[in-house]
Amino acid sequence: MKRCMIVDASDVIRRVARRILESQDMVVVEAANGREALAHCDQKVPDIILVEARLPDMAMSDFLHNVQLNNAKPQIVISLIRLDIGAIMRAKRAGASGYLLKPFDRSHLLGSLRQSFGSTGNKRPTMTAA
Fold first, then answer.
1. Is residue 57 part of a domain?
2. Of the residues 19, 43, 78, 127, which has the maximum number of CB atoms within 10 A of its CB?
3. How many domains does the chain divide into?
4. By the 8 A CB rule, do 49 and 21 touch?
5. Which parts of 27-105 fold into alpha helices (H)?
6. In angstroms, rounded to a whole number, what is the distance separating the alpha carbons of residues 109 and 113?
7. How much is the pTM?
8. Contact, 98 vs 119, CB < 8 A?
9. CATH number of the domain where residue 101 is located
10. CA–CA gap between residue 20 and residue 40 (Å, rounded)
């Protein structure tokens, strides 16, 4: 079973993403900011991290760097409120594998995760958009 962490200051975004991902038989952990997310990663690094591009407490590049200090390679998808090519490219250079625009629905979230897994050559998670 895949483990996913949702990092977003909005409890609504976390709740919607949790509902969608749990319906795909994923174990979901939530964090409201980067420090809380890194504390979760110290316990166990998830397979997938969905993280908002503008964390309230740290720069995205610092967050991505710290996640990778655990010698783990989770798939990291950043979420943005508007298309920002510069932010996407900086995140990809720092280790993110994809992006997702907010607000999202079931098909967008699952499609983004499928694309992220496909672009890295890792085994894709089993997800349906039903």
1. yes
2. 78
3. 1
4. no
5. 34-43, 60-68, 85-93
6. 6
7. 0.87
8. yes
9. 3.40.50.2300
10. 21
